[in-house]
Amino acid sequence: MRTSQLLIPTLREDPGEAETVSHRLMLRAGMIRKVAAGVYTYLPVGLRVIRKVENIIREEMNRAGAQELLMPIASPAELWRETGRWDFYGKELFRLKDRHERDFCLGPTHEEVITDLIRREVRSYRQLPLNCYQIQTKFRDEIRPRFGLMRGREFIMKDAYSFDKDEEDAKLSYQKMYDAYTRIFTRCGLTFRAVEADTGIIGGTSSHEFMVLAETGEETIVYSDEGSYAANVERAEVRPPTDTPTEAPQPLRKVPTPDARTVEEVTALLKTTPQRLVKTLLYKAPHETVAVLVRGDHEANEVKLKKLLGVTELELAGPETVAAITGAPVGFAGPIGLRQTRILADHAVKAMRNFVVGGNEGGTHYVDANWDRDFQVAQFADLRNARAGDPSPCGGGRLRVARGIEVGHVFMLGTKYSKAMGATFLDPQGQERLAVMGCYGIGVGRTGAAAIEQHHDAKGIIWPVPIAPFHVHLLPLSQSAQVSEAAGLLYELLIRSGVEVLWDDRNERAGVKFNDADLIGVPFQVVIGDKGLAQGIVELKQRRTGEVTRLPPDKLLEQVKALLLQHLTVS
Ligand code: ATP
Ligand code: MG
To answer: Cβ(407) to ligand 1 under 6 A?
Structure first.
C-alpha cells in the first residue's frame, strides 16, 4: 500500500489523553482514534494488526478442533433472566429497549446465547464434545475505560464455549484450550505466564488467566521463587499465621489523634508501626454493610470478601455511610462500639494483641485494643492480598510480585449454565444429563496493545513479525527518477510474492520518513537512495536490532523471504 493513499495520520507530539505506552503509540502511529470514552475507530494500520491477531487465534482454535460461528451482538433479556444475569450483571451490561418496549442487551459475553443454541440442537452424547467460538465485538460499560484498546467499552473478543458429556472430557477440552492459548500468545511474540485465577462465586473447578508481563499491567500476579506456583493476587491464598500471640493484654485507652487519618500519620503520631495497627474498612454489599479488619501494612482483598459474602457487587462505603455507622469522619472508623455491623477480620488480626484502632469519633484512636475483649469478630478469614515474601501456598518458596496484562482467560464452568437453561443430552443408557461447559476468552485489541507494551523503544513500536501491520516499509529517500523507478519495481516484486509492503511514496524529507517508519514499527525497512543505487545497492534495516544489510536490489526479495520464513514459521 502507498502511504500517499492511506489514512495513516501519524502524530509528532505525544497526545495528552494517553497514559500508557501502547495507548500513546497507537494514537501517534495513526492506528486508532477515540470516538467516545472506551469506544474507538480502528484506522487501516490498526485494523491490519487486529486482523493479524484474529487470524492467529482462528488458526489455533481451528487446529484445536473448535469451530467458528457468529452470534448476534444484541440478545433478548429473557435469556439473561433464565440465568439470573439480567440483574446480576449490574451496570456493566449495556441495556436497550426495542420499539415494542422489549428489553435487550449488547452482549458482554455469550454463555446464554450459546447455551440456548446447544440446548435446542444437541440431543445425544454422540454430538459431543463440541467447542464453538466467535470473534466479535463485545460491549461492557466499564466504570473506568482507559488505556486505549486495553480497557474499552466496545472491544473485539474471541470467545469460545465447550460442551462435554462429563467432567473428565471437559478437562480435556479445557486443556486443549490452555495449550491453544499458549501457542497463540507465543506466536504473537509475547512473554506471558498462565496464572491460577479466581473463579468468583460461580465456583467452577479451574481457571487460568494468561498474563502478559508488563510494568503497566493492571493486574498483580504473585509467583513462587521456587516452585511453579503462579496466581492472580486476587486469588492467591494466604495461609493463617502459625504463631499465637503471647503478649499480655493491656488496658484499653482512647487517645487524641487530631488530623491523623492515614496509617502513616497515626503510627507516626503514636510512635508505633503499621504492624501494630488494625485498619477498619466499611464495605457496602447489596444487603448489608460489613466492617473488614486488616493489619495496617496489609491490603484488603475485595474478591475474597465478595466470595465470603456470596455477592458480586461491593463497594467501599462513602463518607455518609461511614458517618452514619461510626459517628465519625473517614479515617477514624474502628470496631469498638460499632452497631448493627458484622465485623469480619483477616487471619493476621487473630495473631495480634494490644493494637491501635480508630476511635469512632473524629480525631481519636484506641490503643491496646484486643479482639474478643473489646469487640466481637463474627468471622476470621483470608481477606488480604498476598504480597512479596509471603510463603507460597503450594509447595515451597516465597512469593514474588509482578505486574501483568490479562489477555486471555480459560474457565471451567461446570454445569452452571446448562443447569439454569436446561442444556441436556441423552447418554448411551438413554439417561438425560447436563452438558459440562467451559468458556475461553481472548481480548484481541488488548493483545495488540500488550504487544506494544512489550515491544517498543523511544522511537516507537517494534512489531513482532507475525502481528505487524506490514512486513516491509519501503523508504525511497528522494524523488529522483532512478529512486522512484527502483522503488516502484521493488514494490511490485515484493507484493507479487505475497510480501506485505507499505511504500512511503510521499514527497517528504528523509528524516520525516525515517521517524514515521520507526514510529509505525514495521519490522523490515528498505531504504532506497541515489547514492546507494549508484553503487548498485539498497539497504535492508531491521527495526528491532538496527542491523543494516547492504545488498543489490535483485537480492532483496530472496533476503526478505528468508527473514519472513524465519519469523513466521509455525512449529
Ligand atoms: P478484566 O478483569 O480485565 O476486566 P475480565 O475478567 O472481565 O477482564 P473476561 O470476561 O475473562 O475478562 O474476558 C475475556 C478477555 O477479554 C480478557 O482476558 C481480556 O483480554 C478481554 N477484555 C475483557 N474486558 C475488556 C475490555 N474492557 N477491553 C478490552 N478487552 C477486554
Ligand atoms: Mg472485566
So the answer is: yes
